[in-house]
Amino acid sequence: MPASVASVPPTGATSWRGWQDQAGQVVRNQPAYQTLLLTCRTIAALYELAAREPAQRAEPAAALRVVAQAVEQTWDRERFADDPRKHQPVFPFDRKEHLIVKLHDVLASAGVPDEQGVQRDQAPHPTTARNSVGGTAS
Q1: Which own/partner contact pairs does 96-104 have at CB distance under 8 Å and 24+ positions apart?
Q2: 23-56 as b/e, with b when 16 or more CB fall inside 10 Å?
Q3: Region 27-55 average pLDDT
Q4: pLDDT, tens digit, 9 for 90 and up, residues 70-122
Q5: Which of 12, 56, 60, 128 is positioned for an S-S bond with 48, CB 3.0–4.6 A?
Q6: Is the pLDDT of residue 1 over 70?
Q7: Residues 59-69: what's their mean pLDDT?
Q8: CA–CA distance from 2 to each of 10, 90, 95, 134 (Å)?
Q9: pTM (2 decimals)?
Q10: In the prediction, which pLDDT does 14 show?
C-alpha cells in the first residue's frame, strides 16, 4: 500500500475532521486545501442526512445548512457575491450540477427554512423549464 494511502484518515461521516486537523501542515495552496475540506464537509453532511430516517433529520439538516452557508461564503470570496448565478444557473439544464442550488433543494426537501426563515420551494424540473432563448431545456 502506498504511503499516501496509508496516511488517509478512516472513512465515515466525520473523517474530514482528521484532514482538518492536518491543515496546519499544508504549506502551499492553503486556500485550495480549505476548499477541499469544505468539499469533504459537504459530502459528510449529505451522507449523514441521507443515513437518517426522516423524523431524525433535524440535527444533520442543521449541520448541512451551516455547510451550505460556508459554500456560499466561499463563492462570495472566490467569485462575486452579487453574481446572479450564485442562486440561479445560467442554463436550466445546469441546475442539477449547481452545488449551492442543490444544497438548498436538499434543505428544502428536508423542511429546513433558508437563512431568512423562509421555506424555499424547489424549482421546476429542468425538462419543464424554459431556457434563455425560449426553447425547452431537455
Answers
A1: 96/126, 99/42, 99/71, 100/68, 100/71, 100/72, 100/75, 103/42, 103/64, 103/67, 103/68, 103/71, 104/68
A2: eeeeeeeeeebeeebbebbbebbbebbeeeeeee
A3: 88
A4: 999 999 988 888 888 888 888 888 888 889 999 988 888 887 766 655 444 44
A5: 60
A6: no
A7: 91
A8: 15, 42, 38, 53
A9: 0.66
A10: 54
Q: What residue type is 124 in one-letter code?
A: P
Residue 19, C-alpha cell as written in the block: 484532514
Question: Under the phi-then-psi rule, with left for phi > 0, alpha for psi from -120 to 50, and beta for the rest, what region is 131?
Answer: beta
CB 50 within 8 A of CB 21: no
Q: What span, in angstroms and rounded, lies between the C-alpha atoms of 68 and 87?
A: 12
User: Which three cell numbers, joined as nine digits, stand for 90?
Assistant: 445560467
- 8 Å CB contact between 105 and 119: no
**Are 100 and 87 a contacting pair, CB within 8 Å?**
yes
Residue range 34-44, pLDDT digits in tens: 888 898 889 98
What the block records as the C-alpha cell of 14 is: 466525520
Report the alpha-carbon distance of residue 114 to residue 103 in Å, rounded: 11
The more confident residue out of 12 and 45 is: 45
